[in-house]
Amino acid sequence: MNSVHSAPGTDSHPVVVTRVSETQWHAVEDDLTVGRGVASRRPDGRLFVSIDAWHGAVFDRIADAMPADLPTPLYTVVDEADHDSRSAWERAGFAIARREWGYLVPTDPHITGLGSVRPPSGMTIVPAGEAEEGPLRALDRLIRDEVEATVGWRTMPAEVLPRAAGTTVLDPSKYAVARHVDQYVGLIRVAPLTRQPRIGLIAVRTDRHRRGIARALLAHALGSLHHCGTTSAWAEVTESNAAATALFESIGARRTASTLELVSR
After folding, report:
1. Could you read off the pLDDT of 76-109 as tens digits, one per residue?
2. Disulfide engineering: 151 pairs with which of 155, 183, 206, 235, CB 3.0-4.6 Å?
């Protein structure tokens, strides 16, 4: 935990990078802290790293030191528009693992075309805050198991993190659900953030796909936001998720940002 890495500095003083804890590294030059590195392990077991440094040379020193102290693979996340950060991580041997699109989603039904959308026959939408907690948690666990058995949670947007064993649905009040008779078959989570609500997850049981349930859930959630005076929401979609990309772009959502997940093996 006290590993030390020394290298020539940005000027005439050497930069010394020291691992100060299990998850933190400090770069010191002439008795001043000029950069920091942090490692964090996500619930799915992957190890993510981040570096905060004013100078590219200091970034490179920390980026050289951290992998020497950590097991691979290592992951990090950068804004694709931040070319300097991306280049710095690529110098350190990181490469693109996946891309996540950021969408600005209108709520006005005249723009989205969702004003006339209704749940499929025999289904109803239970508004956020009104779902029964037990069945909601059971649906969440089922959907997570289905995703893990196919594409895996690591392909989900960064905001949709896997949970520790046995932990699901941190705040039931954020979820609206689709109900068929006495079963919950789909859900949507909207985080009511002050500046812009975030659509964190839309998911439907595998055996109920292609019935318009996701579209009905989205129509309900966006309609509720519009009724409250909110003009837009935010959503992230993994580039490889063609169905979700098509759904959001069909309602006029605009792709305004992209995030890259990089990996060093």
Report:
1. 999 999 999 999 999 999 999 999 999 999 999 9
2. 155
What pLDDT, in 10s, does the model give residues 67-77?
999 999 999 99
Spatial CA neighbour of 262 closest among 100, 116, 27, 132: 100
Give the position of tokens 């929401």.
233
Query: CA torsion, points 214, 220, 226, 230, in degrees to nearest 10?
Result: -60
Global pTM reads: 0.81
Whole-angstrom distance, CA of residue 44 vs CA of residue 56: 31
Q: Between 242-250 and 213-227, two packed helices, what is the crossing angle to 10 degrees?
A: 40
Radius of gyration of the chain (CA): 22
Measured in residues, the chain has a length of: 265
pLDDT digits (tens, 9 = 90+) for 115-159: 999 999 999 999 999 999 999 999 998 998 888 877 665 555 444
Per-residue confidence (pLDDT) for residue 44, from 0 to 100: 76
Under 8 Å CB-to-CB from 194, ≥6 apart: which residues?
Answer: none
